[in-house]
Amino acid sequence: MNDKKNFLVNEIIEIDDNPFDRQERIRGWDQQKLRNSRVLVFGAGAIGNETLKNLALLGVGHIYIVDFDTISTSNLSRTILFRRGDKGRYKAKIAAQRTKNLALEDSAKVSWFHGDAVWDLGTGIFRHVDLVLGCLDNVETRFAINKKCYLVKTPWIDAGIYELGGHVSVFTPPQVPCYQCGATEQQLKAARKRYSCDDFKRTVISEGKMPTVQITSSLVSAIQVQEAVKLLTKQPVKSGKKIYFQGRTNDFDIISLVENKNCTGHDSYPEIISLPLKNSVTLKTFLEVVSENHFSGCNATLDFRGDRTFIKSVSCKSCGVDIKLNKPSFRIFDTETICEVCRSNNVKFNQDLSDKPSTRSTVPTFSLAKTEKHILEMTLWDIGIPYRHILAVCDDAGNYKYYELSMDDPFSEVI
């Protein structure tokens, strides 16, 4: 008689079939949190390529990519996601396609937006993600991202490179300091680089090229994404610190940033009301909705509060005649401040004219009773409201409420 016991194997788990097996062995790791995370990445250049690659391989479930630029041949030595045949194509779109191809999470979703991060994306976008990663090369966009993240209390991580050096800073609103707290005069000046004294876009800008190499972007991205994983999996992260690395000397340091008590970059909204509207509706429709009694009531007024400026007209910088514009200032080029008559008389636009202030007629607030009919018939986008923005509306008593255009979805293309 054979008295040996029979064993039944129900399942054999092959650990090497799990692409995340090794990272899940790390103490405090939570793959499910990464799978559920929504990460918004600004910049698909040198750092952005490395960061997107890292997010895809780590198994982050929802990745949103924003960039306004196109691919050039000079990008290729520092961008693992781009190829020679991609020249002239949108960085955001191609980065999204290649990131999706790399993604090891089966349910991963990657979306992209080609546009201006400062003016085309509203603050509501930042409200609906878990983390923002800045992979940028300009101060203006960093200021804008910092302000929007603090308004809706979304953490963000800034990364930057120069030659063989790089830095990473973590900001966790409402904790201070914020990025803008440490702004130098040089940075404040750099943030205004693409605008004239009238806040119009300069037609000609001397564009500086950042000297760097892929080695540096790889190192900096690795640190940025390391801090991102810690934030997303609820591990301790030091906020308001700058992690600095200098490759020439292999110096590595952590610098404590200092709060600026007068900084306006870390205000936040008290409460946000979702409106089932898009920025494609007319200004009149928006005002009619918020004028309902359960919102801001009769005489509700949309107030830009310095967030942007709507220009009705400017005086010609050559002859002084009134030029009708009816556009937000950021969509106006400095060359538009010369009238057609002066152009026909061969008045040349130059740097002196660009730097010469013009007399402007602006509209800071909008209401059904006081705003001109032709402006009321314009869409919110036409007057300068970006996708999924949060708008400030004042009632008769001077109280403000904040409304999000919740139907806007600039990331409609999901890969």
Automatic annotation (TrEMBL):
CDD domains in alphabetical order: ThiF_MoeB_HesA_family (cd00757)
Keywords of the record: Nucleotidyltransferase, Transferase
Domain THIF-type NAD/FAD binding fold: from-to ranges: 27-263
Top-level taxon: Bacteria
GO-annotated molecular function: nucleotidyltransferase activity
SUPFAM superfamilies on file: Activating enzymes of the ubiquitin-like proteins (SSF69572)
Keyword Hydrolase: no
Protein name as it appears in the record: ThiF family adenylyltransferase
Organism: Phormidium yuhuli AB48
